[in-house]
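protien #1 (seq + structre)
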Amino acid sequence: MKRIGITFVALLAMTVPAMAGHVATIGTGTCGSCHRTNLITQHGGFAATVCQTCHDSTATAVKDTIVSGVAGQPYTCSNCHGAETHLSKHGDYATNFATYNGVEPVNGGIWTAPASYTKVTPAAKQYQLCVKCHSSNGLGATTNSVSSVMGPSGLLLTDQAMEFNPNNRSGHPIVTGLNNYPNSPAPKALAKTQLTAPWNVNVGTQTMKCSDCHSIDGKLTGVGKEWPYNSATGQLWKLSDAGNTRLFCKNCHPITNTNNTHSEDNHFKYPCVYCHTRVPHGGKVSRLIVTFTSGLPTRYYPDGKGGGTPSLEDKLLRYTKATSASRYDTPSCDADCHGSHENRTGEAW
C-alpha cells in the first residue's frame, strides 16, 4: 500500500504543465518544447494508451524510478530515456508512422501558421506524425515560421506545418501535389526535364514523404548530402558547382540545362542560396525563391541566422514566375546586378 501511495505522488509530481526539471539531452530545447501538456497525457496519447504501460512495467529500472519519487522531485528524461533515444526513434516514427498518433494542420493563407491542429489517431500519413513536433503544435508559437527552440545544428527550428502549407506559392509536395497549390501561379509544377527519376513522372500530382529527404537522425539523405555548404571548399554551393553529385539538390534535380537562368554564365558565380531559400521546405515566393526584403525570416538567410547576404547590387528583391517552366526573361527578377533587372511588381517576402 505504501508503494502505491508513493507511486501516485510521483505521478502527480510529473503532471506539472511547466514540466520543470524535464531537461532535454538533445539540442538546447526542453522536452516541453514538443511534449507540452504533461508526461501522463503525452505518453498516453503518443504511442501508449494508458499510464500503466510504463508505470506498471516489470522493468526494475522503471519500478525503482517510480518508487524513489517524492512530491516535487523533478524527473529528467534520462530517468526513463537514454540520451540517444530521441534521435534513434525517428527511424521507427518514419517507418511505422501509422502506429502513432499524429496531427493534421488546419491551414491558413499564404505563409501563415496553422490556425489549429486536428488530432489524427493513428496517423494516416507520415507528415502528420512529423509535424506533431516539428511545428507550432510541438515547438510552441513561432514568429514568421521561426521557433525559439535551438536544434542540434545550432540553428533555430522552423515551423514545418507552415512551410508545407499548400496555400503557399511554392513548396515540396509533402501534403498534396503541386497542382493543388491554389496560390501558386501557373505553371505550378516543374517540367519533367527539371526532375530526375523516379520524380519525373506524375509531375504535379505526386507527393513525397519527409523520409525521402531526411534519414532517421534528421540529416539529409541520398547520394548527395550537402547543403548549403560544399565540404570541399567550405563555401556555399554555387551554380558552377552544380555538376557535383555531393550537392543535395542533385538527388532529384539535374540543375544544369533545365532553364535559361541556370545556363547564364554570369550566374555561375552566385551561391544557390542567393536565389533559393536555405530551408527549401516551402515559401511565400514561387519556386522557393528568396528575396532579401523585410519579410524574409532570419532562418532563411544564407547563413541561417539573418546574415550572409549578397552585396547590395546583387540582392534579389522581387521575382515573377515565368509562364514557361524553362524560359525566363530578364525582367522576371528585380536586382541591380545589371540594368535590365527591373521587376517592380513581382512577388517578395
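ok now protien #2
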Amino acid sequence: MQIKEIDLDKSIFELTDEYPELIDILAQMGFVGVKNPLLRNTVGRVMTLREGCKKQNKDLNYVVQELKRKGFSVKGL
C-alpha cells in the first residue's frame, strides 16, 4: 500500500493532482474553491495548504489531524 504523503509546502494543485480524493476532503473542511477546476488550476498552482489555512482563518493543526484521520501522513510542520 502506498503511503499518501502531504507536503505542506506543495501547491494545492500539486497535491490534488497527485491525490484527486483530496478535492472532496478539502471541500468538506471548508476549502470550497478547491472544487472549482479554474481556481485549482490558477490560484491552486501558487497557494499551499498552509497559506490556504491562513487566508481562510482555519487551524492548520485541525486540518492536519483530519488529513491524518483520512490516511495521509503530513510533512512540513
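The first helix runs from residue 12 to 18.
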